[in-house]
Amino acid sequence: MFEWSYSGVNFSLKGNGGPDCVNYLTPKSIMLESLFIITYAFIVEIYYPWMRSVSNYKPNLELRERFGRKLLLAGLCLIWGIEIGYKLSTRQLIFILNPCHVVTFLQLILLISPPRNWMHILFRIQTYVVSGATIAIIFPVLNTRLLPFEKVSYYIHHGLMLITPLYLMRLGGIYNMEPLINLHWGFMSIGFMRLYHYLVLQPISFATEVNLNSIMCPAVSDPFEGPWYRIAANMHQTLFILLHGKMYCIIGKRFFVPRSNEKKKSETNKDNEKWLSNSERCYVQQDNSNCCIENFNNGLLKNGHLVKED
């Protein structure tokens, strides 16, 4: 029924798919590896971080509207439309399932939609998994791109993907990153990416013999080619995604997050710490009721933050 979407895939090109690619790994190793990775990703990388950090986070829905947002949206839509056009013309639309295209779709949602409570989750996840665009630039797979401008489109597409999270941080509001020492969001993003590979890409790849994102056999530029290449990928991608995401945290907060927002957040945190410290002393000095009255008059809690009276 959907043969038109992959009938143009050339299996003679290395790493593109075909019988040799399907038989690259033994069925036993595929089943054991898949069972372990799926269980580990769901319990350790998704459920635990969700319960500890994600479910308790309340985002700030304020947003700075800028013309650059519409400009970036137009550019990303244009280059993504060109990529889809190439795949339609060559009957290889199935490659739209590769993670880079899925992340692009998520970025378009963030650029189009007004602020919502769930969008901060989407933003932080795509900020981590956008590391795939960096890998695509460092280790490009271009042997399947034969049409005019197709290779140039490849680099422009991945370049815009890397720019988008940083620009969104500039808008503030829901587009912010967690503290540098918090690894819960990073591991949860990795967990979702693992599940997407093993529960979505892997079944489709074996059913169509198309090597989606190198899930069946290594790409031509893979430095870890061999029977353990998927295990190696799970290990080095875990480290790379975490480091890449934290680099975005550092760069975004240093160069893109508005200074006024950072200063306001810092002052609020200091005031809250001061109020909590005074409250603790008040609790110890139970016989001195004036302490409680003084602490309450010095600051009023409004919407969960300390607001000083003029």
Indicate the overall shape.
globular
State the total count of DSSP E strands: 2
Mean pLDDT: 83
In terms of per-residue confidence, which ranges show pLDDT below 50 for 5 or more consecutive residues? 282-310
Give your account of this protein's structure.
The chain is mainly alpha-helical and 310 residues long. The protein has one domain (19-256). Helix content is 64%, strand content 2%. It has 11 helices and 2 strands, in the order αααααααααααββ. A two-stranded antiparallel ribbon has the order 1-2. Strand 1 (300-302) and strand 2 (305-307) form a beta hairpin. Helix 5 packs across helix 8 (184-208). The longest helix has 28 residues, at 229-256. It is globular, with a radius of gyration of 24 Å. The N and C termini lie far apart (70 Å). The model is unreliable at 282-310 (pLDDT under 50).
Reconstruct the topology from this structure.
Blueprint: H1 19-22, H2 27-52, H3 67-89, H4 99-112, H5 119-129, H6 131-138, H7 150-171, H8 184-208, H9 229-256, H10 259-284, H11 289-298, E1 300-302, E2 305-307
Helix pairs in contact: 2-8, 3-4, 3-7, 4-5, 4-7, 5-8, 6-7, 7-9, 8-9, 10-11
Keywords: Membrane, Transmembrane, Transmembrane helix
Transmembrane segments: 30-50, 71-88, 94-113, 125-142, 154-171, 183-201
Pfam family, one: TMEM164
